[in-house]
Design a protein that fits this description.
This protein is of the alpha+beta class. The protein has 3 helices and 3 strands.
């Protein structure tokens, strides 16, 4: 057998001065137009934004009456994906539905 290896004590210092920041959040909005049907807007809110029928209908009515409706607040990547998904579905069904995202100030 070889010679005994003495115990080696190691000290590690893990001091991190970086502060972890919450990611910026983005509001996803649907915009009113004169061509997209109310039924299609509700369908988008249910399938893309996982809203219940009642909540989807309320948001759709905000879009219709106020010109814009808040679909949800998400991280940048999620918001961007949802906007792209809405635009793809709208094109597929022949609607000019506009969806946008903006940084959430709250």
């Amino acid at each position: 057998m070889g010679p005994a290896i003495p115990d080696i004590e190691e000290q590690t210092s893990s001091e991190s001065h970086d502060q972890v920041r919450e990611p910026s959040m983005y509001r996803v909005l649907l915009h009113n137009d004169d061509y997209t049907t109310m039924e299609f807007v509700v369908q988008v809110l249910v399938t893309v934004f996982n809203k219940g029928i009642k909540n989807a209908t309320e948001i759709m009515l905000n879009v219709h009456r106020q010109g814009v409706g808040l679909c949800g607040v998400y991280t940048f990547e999620v918001a961007e994906t949802k906007v792209e998904t809405v635009h793809a579905l709208a094109r597929e069904h022949g609607f000019p539905l506009k969806c946008s995202m903006e940084e959430d100030e709250s």
